[in-house]
Structure formats: C-alpha cells, structure tokens
Design a protein that fits this description.
Blueprint: H1 13-37, E1 41-44, E2 51-53, H2 54-70, E3 75-78, E4 90-98, H3 100-105, E5 111-118, E6 121-129, E7 135-139, E8 152-155, E9 158-159, E10 172-175, H4 181-194, E11 200-202, H5 207-215, E12 221-225, H6 229-241, E13 244-250, E14 256-262, H7 266-276
Parallel strand pairs: 3-4, 10-11, 10-12
Antiparallel strand pairs: 1-2, 4-5, 5-6, 6-7, 7-8, 8-9, 12-14, 13-14
C-alpha cells in the first residue's frame, strides 16, 4: 500500500512493540502467580494431551483487556478467546502461555507471546519467557526519513543476530510434535532421517521461544508441523529481523509445516527437511 512521502503512520511499529511488552510483563506476573499457587488442567482441546489451564484463560483475558483499554478499535485473535474484527486495520495475535505443558510441569520454558499485525503484516512482537524473565522484542522499521525507528530485534535490550554460516551436518535444529498421534508418528519417522544429517535435534516445547533461540544464535534451524499463527507470529518476526527466513510448506500430516533458519542456510535446510519426509510434496529420497 503506497503513501505520500513523509506521511506518518500511527501508531508506529515501535510503539506497538512497546505496548506489547508492557502488557506481556503484566500477563507474565499473573502467570507466575498462578504457577506458584499450583496448576490444574481446566480442559483439553484437540486431544487429551492438548491442554488448557485456567491460567491460559486468565492471561488472555488480561492481555485483551489491557490492550483494548488503550486501543479500543483494534482486533484480536488468540488461542483461548473469540476473534475480534479490527475497525482500523490493526490486529493483535495472542498466545497467553506458549508451552502450556511445560507450565503444567514447571519446566522453565513457557512464554507470553503477543504480536501486532497491520493490514495483514506482522509489524511488532514480544515473547517473554515467564520463568526466566527474558524479554525478546522486535518491530519492523518505521519511517526513517522522519526520524522513525529502524527495524530492531533484541533480547533484554541487546540486539540479536542469527548464527554465522554453518555446514548442515553441524547445525542444531529445534522441533516440536503435533498433538495428533497419527501426525506425531509421521513427524517421528521424518525426524529419524533428519537427525542423521545434522548435529542434533532439540525439543524444548515452545515454538515462540524456539524461534527466539534461533534469532539469538542458540539454534541453527527450526521445523514443526501444526503450529498455529499465535505460536509463531511474534517469534517468527523476531527471528526474521535477526536474519532468518521463515516459510510455510505443506506438511506430511496435512497441515502447515513451519521451517525457519538463517537466510544464508535456509535452502539447504529445506532440502534436507523435504528429503527426510516432513513435507507432503516430497517423498523420502533415500531408503523408500
């Protein structure tokens, strides 16, 4: 969408990121309090292992209420609430606790994830590790000719950058597994083939945090089928600003497969993912 030179866009992407950070901090405090008080499963969704806790619901209610108080015309899409259509082109994408099973078991790898979308494009995002307090923040560039903020991705205020080029056999790749047992079986079979071609595989249990680990150079790639928009919106933006590329491919299980890696090594990882059998459009090239 074109605009006259010098025309300001309000709110700025930087200000949306700041609002997301402020709200994520409050939501994280709520989640910490619920974790300290003890956690029980409130419901299940797609399967018995796809759980929801009351903390998930309370966190999303708080996030929506705080943002709506400041920006009543914005829309929302989230894991635990109904969609709200935006009246101004700005929509918030919310995962109140990404890594709910980790939260249930008190494993310190779960996060509040909030992204802002403008006219269909993700422009700002925050992923806050609730257990550690680490804050990942990213936003696209604002109008630089008028003193706007440049694109930026940070961890606790420090700029992020993906790892330097690395041979495929020395790459550490993050992944996750679908809640559907049939798809898990297909993913596991593909993973057996991929693990022989890379340094190793890591499964931490939070898509949002995995993508931030890639952004900070702690992973060389990430692949998972069946993640939702709210799982990867904020973390994916942060990774891309830090130098990664993210694409959706047709997964072998019938849903979207997210692949993310540093731009300089992306094509090689995608080829290995396809050859290992993660995608529907490519069979396993060896051992069939």
């Amino acid at each position: 969408m074109s605009r006259p030179f010098g025309t300001e866009i309000e709110p700025s992407n930087a200000s949306l990121a700041q609002l997301a950070l402020e709200v994520a901090r409050e939501a994280a405090e709520l989640v910490r309090g619920r974790r300290a008080a003890g956690v029980t499963v409130a419901a299940t969704k797609s399967s018995e292992v796809d759980i929801v806790t009351e903390a998930d619901r309370a966190s999303e209610r708080l996030i929506r209420r705080l943002i709506a108080a400041r920006r009543p015309d914005d829309g929302f899409v989230g894991e635990e609430g109904d969609d709200v259509v935006a009246r101004n082109g700005i929509r918030w994408i919310v995962d109140p606790i990404d890594g709910t099973v980790n939260f249930l078991y008190d494993l310190p790898q779960y996060a509040v994830s909030i992204a802002a979308e403008r006219e269909g494009e993700i422009v700002a995002g925050v992923v806050l590790n609730v257990a550690s307090g680490v804050e990942y923040v990213g936003h696209l560039a604002d109008l630089l000719e008028r003193g706007g903020a440049a694109a930026r991705a940070t961890r606790d205020g420090t700029p992020l950058a993906v790892r330097a080029p690395t041979p495929l056999h020395l790459r550490l790749v993050g992944t996750g597994f679908n809640y559907d047992a049939r798809i898990r079986g297909l993913q596991a079979a593909a993973l057996v083939r991929l693990i022989t071609r890379v340094r190793d595989i890591r499964r931490f249990g939070s898509c949002a945090l995995d993508l931030c680990h890639l952004a900070e150079g702690s992973l060389d790639g990430y692949v998972e089928e069946g993640v939702n928009l709210w799982d990867h919106a904020a973390g994916g933006l942060i990774a891309q600003i830090a130098g990664a590329r993210l694409e959706h491919l047709p997964g072998v299980g019938g849903s979207d497969l997210v692949v993310c890696a540093p731009t300089h090594g992306f094509d090689e990882l995608v080829a290995a993912v396809q050859e290992s059998g993660f995608t529907a459009d490519e069979g396993v090239r060896s051992g069939e």
